[in-house]
Protein: ArgE acetylornithine deacetylase
Organism: Actinoalloteichus fjordicus
Amino acid sequence: MTDVEELLAQLIRIPSVNPRGRAEPAETPLAEFIADWARAHGLTATLHEVLDGRKNVLVTLPGESAETILLETHLDTVETEGMTVEPFEPTVVDGLLYGRGSCDAKGPLAVFLTAMADLAASGEPRPHTITLAGVVDEEHVYRGVLGLREAGVTTTGPVIGAVIGEPTSLRMVTAHKGCMRCRITARGPGGHSSEPWGRTNAIATAARIVDYLTDEYAPSLDAQARPLVGPPSLAVTMLSGGTGPNVLPESATLTIDRRTVAGEDPHAVWRDLREKLLARWPAGVEIAEPHIVDYALETSADAPFVQAVARVLAAAGQNPEPKGVGHGTDASKIAWDDIPCVVFGPGAIAQAHTPAEFVPLSELNAARGVIDALLRQSIA
Ligand SMILES: [Zn+2]
């Protein structure tokens, strides 16, 4: 086994399932293991409590310059119910390493840690300071990366660029979408279903809203397409209403998932949609505040850090072209601080969160080679 394969197996054996709303230490045993491992490998490590008992871990390797490369990834995984492989007992079959988190995102975590330890041990020049941030709660509501920002991201120096560790099949992802999710409720007076005349039927109103959103509103977003991620989108994802087969429904509620692109503020998107709906249905329709918002990422390909990552990928025989994806990551929150961010890692997003999650060992080792080379680059 290579050092990165061996460390990944150790990381998978430490459960770090996101407890979502529950109060549990969750990622803390993993954060503590990482801190101990880092210290044993010539690195400094500190723990930062961000949520009752749940801790981010920061690992640092000083370089010739205080200008810092940030390596960020998340410690938490999704649930293990329904898994068809052992979640916490990693197994290798045909070059694929199975286990919860193997791909999302303990693979990148093992890559970052072993690359830093290797650089520390090598005695080779270190042009930049390297900080690894392992954060909590990415799979729920991003409170780990928000805590990281509040603490100033790093205390070592200005961050010249960040690699966010997520499965990207070794592609350099520089753009992704954000989202705004909210519930829309149509209301009616109710009553006996044998006498529907003259009464607003909440389900019928909801159906018209679905038609409007799907056939008019969503296509109108096409004009806002961005080069790497395409247009914003809207999908109605949930619908419920009515209380009995012979009762006129008093309410019907639908949930929408509106995906945003760079330049869209999810809260402004909500206000605009609300205005449009209220213009058509001035009474009997309520648009609840968004229950989830997230932000899009669009990193300039001209940033020296992005060009450095592309050079390293090309030299390693990998595709250096920037790519866009639909799902969100911690990167968009780190980019608020004008830090050029790329998302990169071994394994495919299609394997993340699945019952038989795996990472190909060939990609794990290739990702390690890419990060090894990147940490030795002098980036102007
Ligand atoms: Zn992830």
The pocket of zinc ion is lined by residues 74, 104-105, 138, 166 (CB under 6 Å).
